[in-house]
Amino acid sequence: MAIEDHAQPVGKRRRAFEKLMRGHRAPCCFDGIDYSAFTVWSCDHFVNRLLNCHVPSLYPDTRPPNPMPSSLIAAPVLRVLVADDIEASRLHLCQLVRDCGHQALGVGSGKAALAQIRKQSPDLVLLDLLMPDMDGFAVTQTVRALVSARWLPVIVTSSLEGEQHFIHALQGGADDYLVRPINPALLEAKLRHYARVLGLQSRLALLAQRQRDIHDNILDAVMTLDSRGQIQECNLAALRIFGNGATRLEGRHCERVLGAPLADLLGQGEIALTRFDGSRFPAELALSQWNEAELLRYTIVIRDLTERRRIERMKDEFLATVSHELRTPLTSVLGALGLLASGAAGALPKAALPLAEVAKRNGERLSRLIDDILDLTKLEAKQMVLQMRSTTLDALLREAVTANQGYAQRAGVRLLLELTAPSPAVRVDADRFLQVMANLLSNAIKHSGAGDTVSVSLDWSETHLRVKVSDQGPGIDPKFRARLFEKFSQADASDRRAQGGTGLGLYITRMLVERMGARVDVESATGPGACFRVEFPLIGAQAHVSGPWLLHIDNDLDARLRVANWLSPLCPVQGVANLKQARALLAQALPPIIIADPQAQGSAEEFCKALLSMTKAHGVILFSDAVDNAFVQRLGLAWLQKAHAGREELLLATRVAIGKLNQEFVR
């Protein structure tokens, strides 16, 4: 009688086992343990050990294993090699194996068994311990040396009394034993067990190979490092970039292979790495941190940016070329339209005059778009040269308002310039300042209704001069405010939006203002009206510092520049890209306040612990979209979301942090 399937209830399995054991009192052994004299409790233990094989996960983590289809777990048909020098015994055992639904091949000696193992690659060996030419002990040891790439179960059989010879066989490499005369039910149970284990191992081997193939077919280089920076594993793309395609990288340190220390790799973002041939190339890193048996591991995806940089240069060159090529004919078209509209070629029919004006107006709009593209290309390539001179802004503001008066009249909007007294001098590029004002005024007019007023005002303090452009429009959504000065950023990006535009005007404005050493921001609550402010430092003025210095850690250069512009009137701001740069800076002095973004900085937990080693918890402000409320509450840190917070929110949080530090100092 065979033991019933393990999916059946425990009580039924126990009764089946007890019935089996009552009919066969010979020693019953599995994994070197004699179960024949065990209690009823141990019956379940035996059945579970016999019918259930625990295979450790190839990827140890907290995720539950994916359920495997029963067709993949079903026990396969085994090819069983039976080695016995007594022919009758060998034939009988082969027949028992076939009765169990498996294939059997019999041989009459130990040497013949080894020859068949080399030739046929059986799945399991039933081996008699006592054979004249080469006994089962020697065969088992030879099998273990011969077959190392896979697991070949060896079950030894013998009719000898006592267990010492079985213990010796198990110590020599055997996996299990059976006592002769062999109980057919026990043989069937054991063959079913080994068939299921071998089937699972085959399935796991296929899954592992599939994962390996996927890993090796990723075009980006993928490496797994330990906590010391030693390479544990890499894919074929990594071998092609950092090796000669054949040399193994495992065991080597990342700094010797990549040309960058582990600390720089953990900073992620963009970095220069070294190829196998010694050439340097720009790379983009993405990192994930995980644990393997309580050992820290880093998996790094390395993307070669060489081709992307080449395409970006081609794009910039193409835009510049196209813009220049469009500008020349467009200038001629606009000139011709102006002459036609003025009557230089004769009086136009009355019905044709509005058409000429429409054509001229749209031609001028196209010309401004071409100018924006050219300016954007020059600014991003850092090729724009500014003519900075000391001047007052009163006359420039009058010129800016006059230049945009026609656009305002067509929109039914009133422009109001409010100048109360001559202003102090600042350093600006006059032409670029007029371009900034044109962008701000056209933006305010575009979002104002007929009959509204757009006002331009000027005020100053001991250190700074501020130009304000205020409108009475619908205001700015707080969720959009953080992205207001980004490239191609529009509050309504749909093709049915009420206002036109490319989303480049305010981005170019910010870049121009920052190139002139000033900063631009916006005041707007949910509701009517917005006020854009451009703030220039006065010539010869000493910056007023009302608080301690502040360290800003962010992998995004634009974010660092923006925060520095926002907070520099409050306190000195020093921006760095990662913790390594921060630690180098902190060798001089510790900052009381740190604003940081854990994004692209490795483990957020470890990153924040490093921040807390630099200053106290109430001196840390996380300005990031990469964490959540539960995370910051657990660590006791202040937090602002980049997507929803702007200058005013960050200023307020910084002032609160400074206030807490001042209170602590007083105590």
What features would you describe in this structure?
With 667 residues, the protein is an alpha/beta fold. It folds into 5 domains: 153 residues, Response regulator (Rossmann fold, 3-Layer(aba) Sandwich), CATH 3.40.50; 87 residues, 2-Layer Sandwich (Beta-Lactamase); 73 residues, Signal transduction histidine kinase, dimerisation/phosphotransfer (DHp) domain (Helix Hairpins, Orthogonal Bundle); 159 residues, Histidine kinase-like ATPase, C-terminal domain (Heat Shock Protein 90, 2-Layer Sandwich), CATH 3.30.565; 123 residues, Rossmann fold (3-Layer(aba) Sandwich). The chain contains 23 helices and 24 strands. The strands form 6 sheets. It has a 5-stranded parallel beta sheet with strand order 4-3-5-6-7, sandwiched between helices. It has a 5-stranded antiparallel beta sheet with strand order 9-8-12-11-10. α21 links the parallel β22 and β23. It is elongated. The N and C termini lie far apart (85 Å). The N terminus is likely disordered.
Features:
667 residues; alpha/beta; elongated; 5 domains; Beta-Lactamase; five-stranded antiparallel β-sheet; Rossmann fold; five-stranded parallel β-sheet; disordered N terminus; 44% helix; single chain; Helix Hairpins
Q: State the CATH topology of the largest domain.
A: Heat Shock Protein 90
Assembly form of the protein: single chain
Average pLDDT score: 79
CATH architectural group of the largest domain:
2-Layer Sandwich
State the CATH class of the largest domain: Alpha Beta
Q: Largest sheet at a glance? A: 5 strands, parallel
Instruction: Tell me the radius of gyration.
Output: 40 Å
Overall 3D form:
elongated
- Share of helix, binned: 40-55%
CATH H level, superfamily name of the largest domain: Histidine kinase-like ATPase, C-terminal domain
